[in-house]
Amino acid sequence: MRTAPVRLDSELMSPLTFRTLVGQADYHVTGALKDWEIFDELERIRIPTLVLGGEFDECLPSHLADIAARIPDSEHITQPGAAHMGYLEEEPLRSAYVGIVRDHMARIEARDARHSPRPRGA
């Protein structure tokens, strides 16, 4: 349990998007995502996927690991010190979040470059 309050950068937040998708509060979803369930379809994802959550995320790391286990070519990372929306956290957590995503993308691009065929004449 995180004992300090979550400090999000309000300049990066969109209350309209939150209310539309979730509703007034995330503990009782009433928005467009109320009945959204795709857990049994995760194996259909065919691109490299990063399943990223925070140490103090409402979506527990064990649940995120289960999600990642269902997606081929996925990686699960739990960001230390972060809550549910690491990209909205105040510094230094936001920069750490961006770094995790950047590192994941660099690993995928490097891997794909090693496995792509060389152009003719190269």
From TrEMBL:
UniProt superkingdom: Bacteria
Name recorded for this polypeptide: Uncharacterized protein
Lineage: Bacteria, Bacillati, Actinomycetota, Actinomycetes, Kitasatosporales
